[in-house]
Specification:
13 helices; Creatine Kinase, Chain A, domain 2; 2 domains; Ubiquitin-like (UB roll); six-stranded mixed sheet; 450 residues; alpha+beta
Length: 450
């Protein structure tokens, strides 16, 4: 088996002929950043790698139910097929599944025109805008999860109550605490390495049973692709071990699951565009980029925090931001500038574990580009505790954020009116579904006493 080497079609054919690969996972990220697709036999894939799939995959809620309000596809249009076109540069082993390889796809219309609302298409278009300025985006995502000693089926049957976390106390940076779950974390690290996704480290986090695995800094599209593959593999590996893990932004009243997104730009020579001539200070372009991020964060929150639950992370003293500022190595700010020399970069601390990485990166690039193109005046770095500062606030709910996104001239200019309308409807669906639900909180509060 070719270890961490990427696969090409001749290698895939040879491995299939030797019986080493018998399944091709053909998948595309949906609006939530989940992988959707088919498992295909190698002979069929090698003969014709392009597949079709129902267009409703870009017009459903989290439950995969077709919902009203989308003009892209609907019952009235008959819910025909999209074309799933494999990006063969993403073809790799899926070592956590015996005999499997995986390839990510772009979603296209039958005419082979990319679907504008597809997450990979949205990120690619922002990267093309960057390229017109002679710039390339590099990124990394730090994705946290909570790991439980219950299976997914047990968790479901118990309405997600009474679950047993793999650690009963704060294990942030603890070697002893993380050793208890090392069999699962080790398997996940090694599976990612074997899939060609370079792991840097794993560590414990603050919440009970909370862990994080970090990966090498790569081009932004590669990082987003690796993010969704890792997220899928993590759930499958946990399930195989009789465990469950969740990336939801806020599972309980303790620390939520963050997904800090690191981003920097390089010029045509491959040098950092964020670094000033003195070799350590932020460049003018970086300060313009930061100004764009700050200016447009309120309108972009549905791309950073797409769900009702996402906003429950934003609490003072939680290591999730509540105010809009940037600071040098300051974890109380929404945007933390870190790194030294060529590694100087911005860390966006707004997204949670439920984020779609393609949308978050597209949003950051679009906002930063606007700062560069309009030469927005830089905001000074904030020092001190941003939680207590008199600064603009992060929108506190999806109900507050969604109208800002839908009404923004910036979002329509950056992504297109049809794309904005599509994702505004996604937010509306989330809000309407939540507002129709009767929660445990309401029952405990009202059953006897009202």
């Amino acid at each position: 088996m070719p270890g961490s080497q990427p696969l090409d079609m001749p290698m895939l054919r040879a491995m299939a002929e030797r019986g080493e690969i018998d399944t091709i996972i053909l998948a595309a990220p949906d609006m939530q950043g989940r992988l959707q697709g088919k498992r295909v036999m190698p002979a069929f894939f090698l003969a014709n790698p392009i597949m079709e799939g129902c267009a409703y995959l870009l017009a459903t809620d989290v439950e995969c139910r077709p919902v009203p309000g989308y003009t892209l596809v609907s019952w009235e249009q008959g819910f025909g097929d999209f074309v799933f076109t494999p990006d063969l540069g993403t073809l790799r082993l899926a070592p956590w599944q015996p005999g499997a390889a995986i390839v990510l796809c772009d979603i296209e219309f039958a005419s082979q025109r990319p679907v504008p609302m597809a997450p990979r298409t949205m990120l690619r278009r922002q990267l093309q805008r960057l390229a017109a300025h002679g710039l390339t985006a590099f990124a990394a995502t730090e994705l946290e999860f909570l790991l439980f000693r219950n299976s997914y089926e047990e968790a479901w049957d118990n309405a997600y109550r009474g679950l047993t976390p793999t650690n009963q106390y704060n294990n942030d940076y603890s070697i002893l605490g993380t050793a208890r779950v090392e069999p699962i974390i080790r398997k996940l690290r090694n599976a990612m390495e074997a899939a060609g996704i370079q792991v840097e480290n794993s560590k414990g986090e603050n919440n009970f049973g909370q862990h994080e695995i970090n990966f090498a800094y790569r081009e932004a599209m590669i990082t987003a692709d690796q993010h969704v593959i890792y997220k899928e593999a993590a759930k499958e590996i946990a399930a195989e071990a009789g465990h469950a893990l969740t990336f939801m932004a806020k599972f309980n009243e303790r620390e939520g699951n963050s997904c800090h997104v690191h981003l920097s730009l390089r010029d045509r020579a491959g040098q950092s565009a964020f670094l000033a001539a003195d070799g350590h200070s932020p460049s003018k372009l970086f300060l313009q980029f930061l100004a764009g991020l700050l200016a447009h964060t309120p309108a972009l929150m549905p791309f950073y925090a797409p769900n009702i639950n996402s906003y429950k992370r934003y609490a003072p003293g939680s290591f999730a931001p509540t105010t809009l500022a940037w600071g040098l190595d300051n974890r109380t700010c929404a945007f933390r500038v870190v790194g030294h020399g060529e590694s100087l970069r911005v860390e966006n601390r707004l997204p949670g574990g439920d984020v779609n990485p393609y949308l978050a990166l597209a949003a950051m690039i679009a906002a930063g580009l606007d700062g560069i193109e309009r030469d927005l005046p830089p905001a000074p770095a904030f020092t001190g505790n941003a939680y207590d500062a008199d600064l603009p606030r992060v929108p506190q709910t999806l109900h507050e954020a969604a109208p800002l996104f839908a009404a923004s001239e910036f979002t329509r200019a950056a992504f297109g009116a049809d794309v904005v309308a599509h994702y505004a409807n996604m937010a509306k669906v989330e809000l309407d579904t939540f507002n129709a639900a009767v929660t445990d909180w309401e029952r405990f509060r009202s059953f006897e006493r009202m």
